[in-house]
Amino acid sequence: MKKNPIDSYKQEVNNKLRKKPSEIIRKSLNHWDSTIDRLLREEDLGPTERPHYLTFAIYEAVAIIFSKWEFLGGLYYGKQNGTGGKDFKRFVEKFSEFKEVNKHIKLGDVYSMFRSNTFHSDAPAPYFVKNENRLIRGLVLVKQPGFGIKEHEGSKQEEIFLYNKDYLTIYCSGLKKDFKSSVERYIKYLEENRGEDREDLTAEQKNKTPEVRFRQGYWYCFMPKGMNRGEWNSACKFQ
After folding, report:
1. Do 67 and 207 meet the contact criterion of CB atoms below 8 Å apart?
2. Angle at 145 between CA 111 and CA 35, to 5 degrees
3. What is the DSSP string of 88-101?
4. How far, in Å, are 76, 140, 141, 227 from residue 56 at the CA level?
5. By CB neighbour count within 10 A (0-12 exposed, 13-18 middle, 19+ buried), where does 1 fall?
6. Which of 5, 44, 75, 126 could form a disulfide with 135 if both were Cys (CB 3.0 to 4.6 A apart)?
7. ∠ Cα 40 98 86 (to 5°)
8. Is 120 helix (H, G, I), strand (E, B) or coil?
9. What is the sign of the dihedral through the CA atoms of 136, 140, 145 and 146?
10. How confident is the prediction along the chain (239 residues), in pLDDT tens digits per residue?
């Protein structure tokens, strides 16, 4: 008798999830790091026909980083019904130094500017500060001599972003390093595999280890399109 292809696929995904979550993410990080590097290769940038304030901009690199933070936020939370800006925000606030941008513009709005607008249109649309009737433009700099470096305790450090009244500038080199560091922190978090009492976790989630939440969220990522979500999630052996 011919085996049901759905049953075979469910078993295939369950077998994949038997690997250590930290190993799965470490392998993905190597791939993401390589992809972002290719986008930012200086010799491939070439001249741009975009307006002067968009020069040196590779918005797709930033959008990919934001998308992966969103994806990882879903795994951290154990989401089984899709991800969005809230998951990006959860992950950044816990694992990334980029959370400091929240002092100036809400993380959800930064996500919409640099992730959603980039993937669904072209360059980020400005952020409108209604009570002050002004715009904040979103910029990305790949490499610009003299920019993106700050002094800290006698040493020079790369900045992740710079905010002023008219612009929010993201420095690709600093963001890429922060992204890698944030994922490495998440890997360590998975390896320690201890529960935690956080306000953004439900009572049920607090009783589940980070590895269990990871496997539940990762399982959902493999759901066949057109399949009932409840039926798919119920077949996960890592509840």
Report:
1. no
2. 45
3. HHHHHHHH-GGGGG
4. 33, 7, 5, 43
5. exposed
6. 126
7. 105
8. helix
9. positive
10. 567 888 889 899 988 889 999 999 999 999 999 999 888 765 444 444 444 444 445 788 899 999 999 999 999 988 888 899 999 999 999 999 999 999 988 999 999 888 988 888 777 788 888 888 989 888 887 755 444 455 545 555 678 888 888 888 888 888 999 999 999 999 999 999 887 766 667 777 777 889 999 998 999 988 998 888 888 888 887 76
**Are the CB atoms for 123 and 117 separated by under 8 Å?**
yes
Residue 168 in 3-state DSSP? Answer: strand
Instruction: Output the six-digit token pair for 204.
Output: 């049920």
- End-to-end CA distance of the chain, in Å? 30
Tokens representing residue 94 in the block: 């816990």
Amino acid at 216: Q
Q: Tell which residue, 131, 132, 125, 93, has the closest CA to residue 109.
A: 125
For 92, counting Cβ atoms within 10 Å of its Cβ (0-12 exposed, 13-18 middle, 19+ buried), the class is buried
Q: What type of residue is 100?
A: E
Asked whether the beta carbons of 63 and 112 are under 8 A apart, the reply is no
Helix (H, G, I), strand (E, B) or coil at 167: strand
Amino acid at 153: E
> What residue spans of 5-160 are helical by DSSP H?
5-16, 21-39, 59-77, 85-95, 107-111, 117-120
Q: Tell me the pTM.
A: 0.85
